[in-house]
## 1
Amino acid sequence: MAGPGQSSSTRAERLGTLNGAPKPLVTPSLLNCDFGRMTEELEALRQAGALAVHLDVMDGHFVPNLSYGAPVIADWRKYTGFPFDTHLMMSDPARYLDDFIKAGCDVVIFHIEAVPEPVPLLRRIRDAGCEASLALNPPTPLSAIEPFLDDVDSVLVMSVMPGFGGQKFDAQVLDKVRALRSARPEMRISIDGGINPSTVSAAVAAGATQLVAGSAVFRSDGNYAAALAELAESAGRVPM
Ligand code: DX5
Ligand code: ZN
């Protein structure tokens, strides 16, 4: 099986890595990293024991910030076999979907607030061999995505308003995580925003199985292994 450091991986292998990973899985968000040294950053994450990475794509329209798009992701894909959990914070994800698929994304997440009738897009994602996921912002009720749960492989519950790293965790969203977990005992539920050693255990107790963390991983001392170990330990799992 191709590991996170090998660039010749297939999408099926990468999705196998993601789905076979111990749970809960801490997934570093590539937003607060040093974009001028991405190959080194990816290698440092691999050595630190990360098994997947979360890519935050911002269009400056759905959210008030810009990050990176498919051409940049395609270049990262040349250097890493990490599963790419790709969070499209975009008003019109359908327009660019093929580019993200070609770039080597594996899980494609878009927002229910941007695409209120999501089934055709979810099916396009799955038909391409990717996993499809819906994200919902803190004010959006779970009922907004409930009709579509048979068409998704995972759900991303935002615990901050999207657009920026380093914001405060909103514990009120845990009610949605609990309700979703009881409706879907086996589904991968990700939580994204403000995850750190103090907030992670409540997220796991509510039923989150994937913990997206940006600033808690890319901390100033550069010790990603310690950051991941601390998060995993606080999440109630023995660190890898
Ligand atoms: C927010 C992004 C998150 C965020 C995580 O718009 O979707 O992935 O960057 O960063 P922290 O962990 O710093 O909240
Ligand atoms: Zn994100």
## 2
Amino acid sequence: MQKKITILDFQRMKAEGEKIAVLTCYDFPTAGIMDGCGIDMILVGDSVGVVVAGHDNTLPVTMEEMIYHTKAVLRARPKAFVVADLPFLSYQTDLTSARMNAGLLIKDGGAAAVKLEGGANVAETIRAITDMDIPVMAHIGLTPQSLHRMGGFKVQGKGEEQAEKLIADAIAIERAGAFSVVLEGIPMSLAGRITAELSIATIGIGAGPLCDGQVLVLHDILGLCSKYSPKFVKRYADLAPIITEAVSSYIADVKGGTFPEERHSFK
Ligand code: KIV
């Protein structure tokens, strides 16, 4: 039987060069399936606002929504380590609300850790949350909650000056006590430099193969998100046409009177 994955496993995996496989997940049945496949870490990402709720970006996502989805994932009793995203405005305004909201994702949601976006600017927040014994995953580079500052979803850390800033951010995050960091949308060589510099695990998305692990949004790898498919996504299934065919067949059966049959009925 697969054992429960804890924060200690990620340090070991980095030290032993074992890559860490992470996917986002937002619901009970999918959490059960992906846990059965042996995923190391499940991220209940605020990407739920885009791929499930249909928003254009993650900014509208609320704490209530994050707790709801985290609870649903935890009902599958996954062996994987579950991290829940702190949504926009739940940790930026003051340390007290950051601590309270991180606590709620653990206490009500059942997550084992929280993730927040930012580098040196959130070091104090990371310290405040880790001081409560809540593990924190940081997230630097292309940080979707900073969409308006970045002027869109653009690759970050391209020049040497920007690269140096991101390296300094990564070091500040590690010093503040984060157990891991997501590197999103940065050049692969920079991701390699950060990964070599840090003793905590780096999890890449659009950051190339030199990170300690990788994360992708589940709906992207399953072909369920038709809006936009970034270059860094690898699609492992094309479920939209399969769902289209199933739903169309159901409609045709109902309209044509071929469903339900006697065998679907009670006597
Ligand atoms: O919300 C999310 O899904 C994320 C990943 C893309 C890293 O933050």
